[in-house]
Amino acid sequence: MNSLVHDGDAVTIALESAADVANRDAVLARAMSPNWKKKTSQKLRAGRKPAEGLAFVARDNAANVIGTVRLWNVSAGIDAEGRSVSALMLGPLAVDPDAKGTGTGSLLMRHALSEAARLGHGAVLLVGDAPYYARFGFSAEKTGTLALPGPVERDRFLAIELVEGFLNGAAGMVVASGEKVSKPSKLRLVA
Q1: Among 35, 45, 154, 136, which Cα is nearest to 91's?
Q2: Quick one: CA dihedral 106, 108, 114, 117, positive or negative?
Q3: pLDDT truncated to tens, each residue of the chain (191 aa)?
Q4: The whole model's pTM is what?
Q5: What domains can you pick out in the chain, each with its CATH number?
C-alpha cells in the first residue's frame, strides 16, 4: 500500500474491492467526459475483468474513494515468431475533480506500474495525453506497428516497457485477452 500526504490530507492506494465499485463509478462519472465509454480503449475493457491484482483506488483520510486506475490483459499483436505478445492496457485513470492537483493521479500511476512490474508484466499500453504520461516513461515509440480496434490519434497511443525490449517486433491488432465477466446464470424452476 502506498500513501501520500498533501496539505495535511493522507491519500492511500489500495486494491479495489467489491465494496468500492459504486464509489469508483461515481468518481468516473464526475471525472470523465460523458462519452468516455464510447472510446476505443473501452472496447478492450468491455465485458472483461481487470488484470488480477491490478485494479486500485485512492482513498482520502476519511476513506472516501477519490481516484481509480485499472489495468487490463491484452494481446499487443504478435511477435516475429507469430506468438501473441501479452501486455496490459491501462485505463481509465481518474481522480475526483475535488482532488485534482494533489498528486493523487501520479501516485495511482506509479503504484499501478510498480505492481505490474512486480507481477512480471512486460509492457503497458494506454491512450492518453502524451505530455502527461511522458513523465512516467510512456511514449508512442513502441506503438507504431500496433493498431487498436477503433479510431485513435496516433500520438495518443502510448506504451511503456517494464522489461526492456519487450515490445520489440510486436505488430498487429491489440485485442482483449483478459478473463470475461461471468453473466449470472438464469435459474430454471422445475415443477
Answers
A1: 45
A2: negative
A3: 565 555 556 899 999 999 999 999 999 989 987 766 667 888 888 899 999 999 999 999 999 999 999 999 999 999 999 999 999 999 999 999 999 999 999 999 999 999 999 999 999 999 999 999 999 999 999 999 999 999 999 999 999 999 999 999 999 999 999 999 987 655 555 54
A4: 0.89
A5: 2-176 (3.40.630.30)
